[in-house]
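Narrative of activities, Objective 1.

The group set out to show that a structural description can be obtained from nothing but a protein's sequence at a throughput compatible with the screening campaign. Below is one input-output pair from the validation batch, recorded exactly as produced.
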Amino acid sequence: MFLIPLGVYILVLFGYPLYYSVSMSFKNLNQITLINGNANFVGFQNYIQAWSSSIIWRSFLNTIQFTVVSIIMQFVIGLLVALLFNRRFPLNRVLRSLILVPWLIPQIVSGAIFNWMFSSTNGVVNQILLDLHIVSTPVNWLLHPESALIVMMITNIWIGVPFNMVLLYSGLQDIPREIYEAAAIDGARGVRSFFYVTLPNLKVIIGIVLMLGLIYTLKVFDIVMSLTQGGPANMTQLLSSWSYTLSFTNLNFGQGAAVANGLIVISLVFTAIYLWINRKTAD
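Output recorded for this entry:
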């Protein structure tokens, strides 16, 4: 009986949208067929067309690059910051609260901030580089595919570091000090203490941080829209933004749903791998 409210919640807010998305992906659903209600069943045609285009593979490679770099940098920086705040020093609590600000700000706002910072006309980044004589002319960061993707990564890393820091810091706080004292007696201090005491005791937390970071990064959308809108020439599209472009710019809802469903499958695969590894570790 206690599971009924949760079951209804999952079916209404998750089950039905997922069913509707899968249903759309098998229909010829565009602005015309949506209005007249005559969307024919086309089988896997939307999947074949959507996943055989050159843009989808560019989006797929961008998503992999964006996800891998973001997760690694968020985790490394988040761990270093967590280790810093695990020590006692003045204003520790105040600074720990302030570092959460990027995580609390909506992503669309963060994207707008970095859009201004990397602007080619009045951006603070170009101004600093010009003042230091590193560049002679302003750099068009968001007009070149490689630099635009880097700016997207920097923005996402800035947003994700506080989340990683909070979880890793909580894990560090749960490690008993007696373990470090016993390890010190055996000669494990400094770096050796980190590798032989800290990391093994953070193993579960690290798995959770990486898994949640993967899921959150795969579905990043606001950052793309606020920085590049997928441009120039769709070269910075991610799977999430390309699904949106197909659906609400090209008005091809069937192919947009096909891309979105593929992204769901990718997330489920990584989730299954994580659960399998976690179960093997627990055994």
